[in-house]
Specification:
Blueprint (H helix, E strand, L loop, with lengths): L4 E12 L2 E13 L4 E5 L6 H8 L7 E10 L2 E2 L5 H7 L4 E4 L3 H4 L6 H13 L3 H14 L5 H4 L9 H13 L5 E5 L7 H18 L2 E6 L2 H7 L2 E6 L2 E7 H6 L4 H8 L40 H5 L5 E2 L5 E2 L2 H10 L4
Parallel strand pairs: 3-8, 3-9, 6-7, 7-8
Antiparallel strand pairs: 1-2, 1-4, 4-5, 9-10, 10-12, 11-12
């Protein structure tokens, strides 16, 4: 059975005054229909660039250095402008971190919602307006009919994100990519937005890619998690595998940095020392070696391959690979 989305050996580079910066280095993963996949990593890990590449939203400074993106078996990277316009919104949609910048501040909310419905579903103005009222009501916006006439600036951050979600799911897409959708919101509104995404995508059977720097948030929402560092996937597995038995030192460090909800609070929260390598400078060996407490000579000399530990589990770490090979876990 073909996966809904297949990303194969994706490489993305950016042209800068100092030369080429490689933001994504050979990323591969798949998403099944209805599945929820989380992509986690620090700022600059390449997770958002990966999502933008999937949606063909990279700017003019970006270039693809290789790889393929297949959706329902079709190569998205080969879509012409017309096919791409019909695909976005109808088949795949995206919710961005800052809804104020993704919504047009000069256009009323109603027109922004109905535009998608009229473009992709062929609705007339009356039907699209009626459906827009239903959508805003479904995402928890009161007096939906009245608020269609308002501009984005009159909505709070949480309400703007609800509007963005309503637009994204309006055509029942097969895939929704949510790029840090709750980062700019307070904790209470974060929970409300995640609950909303959970309910609406479950009703539609929509697959979701949730991008976040917060492993705690992703672990409550997703079936499977990819951990990215310095432009590549360093570990992947089911949520239970990643949370209960992390294998990569970076994943372990991310989990250790999440404050415990019970017991005595530490005087200082654990952190990861150092910084990721610069994407524009060549480096040798594992990108995490300079920050890793378990690093050995081999880690500084060669970049570890993404080793398969089973049907759902992969890790790119020399130390972890040696440990699992000794136990006979590799496949």
């Amino acid at each position: 059975m073909t996966a809904l989305l297949e990303v194969d050996d994706l490489v993305v580079r950016f042209a800068t005054p100092d030369g080429q910066n490689t933001a994504v280095r050979g990323v591969s993963f798949s998403v099944e229909a209805g599945e929820r996949v989380g992509i986690v990593g620090e700022s600059g890990s390449g997770k958002s660039v990966t999502a933008q590449a999937v949606m063909r939203l990279l700017g003019p400074a970006a270039s693809l250095g290789g790889g393929a993106v297949r959706f329902d078996g079709r190569d998205v990277l080969e879509f012409d402008s017309g096919t791409l316009r019909r695909w976005r919104g109808a088949q795949a949609a995206m919710v961005f971190q800052d809804p104020l910048s993704s919504l047009n501040p000069l256009i009323r909310i109603g027109m922004q919602v109905t535009e998608t419905l009229r473009e992709h579903l062929g609705m007339d103005r009356r039907a699209a307006t009626a459906r827009a009222v239903e959508l805003l009501s479904e995402v928890g916006i009161s007096d939906a009919a009245g608020r269609l006439r308002e501009y984005p600036m009159t909505f709070s951050g949480g309400m703007r994100q609800r509007v963005a979600i309503a637009i994204a799911v309006s055509c029942s897409p097969k895939l929704l990519i949510a790029d840090e959708p709750t980062t700019a919101l307070d904790v209470t509104v974060q929970a409300q937005v995640l609950d909303l995404m959970d309910r609406m995508t479950a009703e539609l059977g929509t697959a979701v890619i949730l991008i976040s720097h917060d492993l705690g948030v992703v672990s409550t929402f997703c079936d499977r998690i990819l951990v990215m560092y310095a432009g590549r996937v360093v570990e992947s597995g089911t949520t239970q595998e990643i949370v209960d038995d992390p294998r990569h030192p970076y994943t372990k460090a991310l989990l250790a940095s999440i404050p415990a909800m019970t017991g005595e609070l530490p005087r200082r929260l654990p952190s990861i020392p150092g910084s990721p390598p610069h994407s524009g400078r060549p480096f040798q060996g594992c990108a995490f070696a300079g920050r890793c407490p378990l690093a050995e000579d081999v880690c500084r000399e060669s970049d570890p391959a993404l080793l398969s530990l089973g049907p759902t589990r992969r890790v790119a770490c020399h130390v972890a690979a040696r440990a699992v090979t000794t136990k006979g876990e590799t496949s």
